[in-house]
Amino acid sequence: MIKIITKVTLAVLLLAVSVSKAQNFQGQAFYKSKTNMDGSLKIESSSMTEEMKQKFMESMKKEFEKEYILTFNKSESVYEEEQKLDAPEPSAGGMMIKMENSNDGKIYKNIKDKVSITEEEFFGKEFLITDSLSTYQWKIEGESKKIGEYTCYKATYTIPVSEKEKEEYANFKNKQTDSKTQFLMMDEPKEQLISVWYTPEIPISNGPGEYWGLPGLILEASFDKTVVLCSKLILNPKDKLIIKVPKTGKKVTKSEYESLVQKQMELMNSQRGDGKDGIRIEVHR
């Protein structure tokens, strides 16, 4: 009888230690993002030589090659671009290329409270976008593969075209007839397939960007022509990781921010719509 009690007590203690470790589980995942822009970019400008266009294209492509760090624990995470001290490179005609609204802001996710907070800079102004955490109805595909030493499983999610996207595209097409050229072009919206690979060996329901909601850390994500791949992991480091909630910028909702961006794009189009020495950029997905 004493032996049975001893065994039960030991089992309870081991379970308590296991739960404690799970609650304190933390780490960092380093991701590399790359977008295949071959055949997707088109530039039209009467004021740029072919050499300038080529340099412009190269600079644009670099804007789609980023490195990020996801710092996480069981319930919170911060996803942000890795800061580097590389010297700036000149681009076509002395212009520096910076993709506005390229979603490079710091993203904070609180899985417990289902809250997302994002810091974004748009045309020199900082915004703090607060929203409910996006919900993904993942479909487990039954495929597996190794990423590094971890066994990963495939899951997909299809984002349908919203009525708002259809309306915005219809408005764009109508306004196209009112000007000779457009500074930025818009493709007809289509369903977007998101494919991810997650590993239950890292019991964190999290991943790069806004992605989460699977029984394991997402190590790879593919959408449009972009692939985000985990290149390095640090689990349970000796020094405790601090996850800071973003606080910089004007507080807005996601819909308010998207409306602001849309208005700015329309303003840019109207200002460049005279066809005189403007730069026409088309991005095809």
TrEMBL record:
InterPro entries: GLPGLI (IPR005901)
Keywords: Signal
Signal peptide per UniProt: 1-22
Pfam family, one: Porph_ging
Superkingdom classification of source: Bacteria
Organism name: Flavobacterium paronense
NCBIfam families: GLPGLI
Name of the protein in its database record: GLPGLI family protein
